[in-house]
Design brief:
Blueprint (H helix, E strand, L loop, with lengths): L11 E10 L3 H12 L4 E4 L4 H6 L5 E3 H9 L4 H6 L1 E3 L2 E5 L2 E5 L1 H5 L3 E3 L2 H15 L3 E3 L3 E6 L6 E5 L6 E11 L6 H4 L7 E17 L7 E4 L6 E5 L5 E7 L10 H11 L12 E16 L2 E2 L2 E3 L5 E2 L7 H22 L3 H4 L1 H24 L6 H14 L3 H12 L6
Parallel strand pairs: 1-2, 1-11, 2-8, 5-13, 11-18
Antiparallel strand pairs: 3-7, 4-7, 5-6, 9-10, 10-11, 12-15, 12-16, 13-14, 14-15, 16-19, 17-18
Helix pairs in contact: 1-6, 1-9, 9-11, 11-12
Length: about 400
């Protein structure tokens, strides 16, 4: 919340140019860009370092995003260890259809689990570049965002409230974080959409059963197969919103995966122990503008996109590149052009990706609605990808993020 005077009598006050709230891909990338330019900053994170380096999250990174990380000296680990994917596979109607998007576009995807990227970014920021990052902070509050910004928090060890006065706050703490909540009602518009479905997100201690991502479009519901490492595979199963993950036993999960991903000539799934089961309700929101006073939102704090098109981490990196560069230009050159255009530049890509996610949702989920019209149109969209090179190329460009303006 914004409390104009709640921090004025604090015994511990400091000043920084930028306070970054949240140590996910967006916050850590912003922090690294600032440190590389010797711009004074601090990153605050409510969780421990171990937690953020191990929590399971996305794993698909688009080529332009990797290029942006390389340009900033942040892609050494990714370059050494990421898998390069050039095709995916759709399975529907009992058949397999390989979609070679690299052949269509000369672009590809990288598969590099978010925990590994976060580990790389933390190491670079804290250990290599000597950045100030404070883990496990509590009761974070944002103050005076339109006039003289400050961020306060409780030190979990001493119980003392610290205050960081700053020029700018980078709100990178996710959809449920304090940054977005600090914006008063009516000062931004929040556009929302609910897809009306959920996905059971699974991590299996099992080698991938395919050399590429596999999408199963089935009357029982969508299923997805995504490699995360040579030993671990991410699976998704469409399920009702609010479903209880504990109702999905080992046998039930693997039975549905075999059914929904089954196709003529498909190799059998390699089964393994399920180390994660959680239900993700498929919904989206977009905050417009992504700026309030001297608070700049980035990543899920500014826009939440369902994992349907694997765009969330890529959008977070896009925001971070723009915001980090804009803050550096302000601090080193007095150039506010990037800050003034930040929200508009972010939202162009955000809405482009939201539109594609909505389109893809119709393909993935239409056959399971029980509505024969929606099922028919969904399958028509899929068949078009394998009968029209123009349609396939347009889809591939959106799937790779190659068509969005950067």
């Amino acid at each position: 919340m914004t409390h104009p005077s709640s921090h004025t009598n604090s015994p511990s006050q400091e000043r920084r140019t930028v306070v970054v709230v949240g140590a996910g891909p967006a916050g850590l990338t912003v922090g690294n860009i600032l440190r590389a330019a010797d711009v004074d900053c601090v990153v605050l994170e409510t969780e421990s370092r171990r937690f953020i380096e191990t929590r399971p999250r996305a794993g698909v990174i688009e080529e332009w995003a990797v290029r942006g990380l390389r340009q900033r000296g942040l892609a050494d680990g990714l370059t050494a260890r990421a898998q390069v994917h050039s095709a995916c596979e759709f399975r529907f109607g009992g058949e397999r259809f390989r979609f070679d998007y690299s052949e269509l576009t000369d672009h590809h995807h990288y598969v590099y689990p978010q925990p590994l990227l976060v580990t790389d970014l933390v190491r670079e920021y804290a250990d290599v570049r000597g950045g100030d990052i404070r883990f496990g902070v509590r009761d974070v509050e944002l103050h005076d965002l339109e006039t003289d910004p400050a961020v306060s928090y409780l030190d979990p060890t001493t119980g003392e409230r610290h205050v960081l006065h700053c020029e700018f706050v980078a709100g990178c703490d996710g959809a449920r974080g304090v940054s977005r909540a600090a914006i008063p009602d009516g000062r931004v518009r929040i556009a929302r959409q609910d897809h009306g479905v959920a996905w059971l997100a699974l991590l299996a201690e099992a080698p991938p059963s395919s050399d590429c991502v596999v999408f199963g479009v089935h009357p029982n519901g969508f299923a997805g197969h995504m490699a995360r490492s040579p030993e671990v595979t991410r699976y998704y199963l469409q399920c009702p919103p609010g479903d209880d993950p504990e109702s999905w036993s080992h046998d039930r999960v693997w039975g549905e995966l075999r059914e929904r991903l089954g196709a003529a000539g498909a190799p059998p799934l390699t089964e393994g122990r399920l180390v994660e089961k959680r239900v993700l309700d498929m919904h989206d929101h977009v905050v417009e503008p992504m700026v309030f006073g001297r608070l700049f939102l980035a990543g899920d704090a500014g826009h939440l996109i369902a994992p349907i098109a694997a765009k969330g981490m890529n959008l977070a990196l896009h925001d971070a590149f723009l915001l980090g560069d804009a803050l550096v230009a302000h601090a080193t050159k007095g150039d506010d052009t990037g800050l003034a255009g930040y929200s508009h530049a972010c939202l162009r890509r955000v809405w482009d990706y939201q539109e594609f996610s909505r389109f893809l949702s119709g393909i993935y989920h239409g056959t399971a609605t029980g509505d024969p019209f929606l099922a028919g149109t969904s399958l028509a969209r899929l068949r078009r990808l394998f009968t029209s090179r123009a349609a396939a190329t347009a889809f591939a460009e959106q799937y790779l993020g190659a068509a969005a303006a950067f």
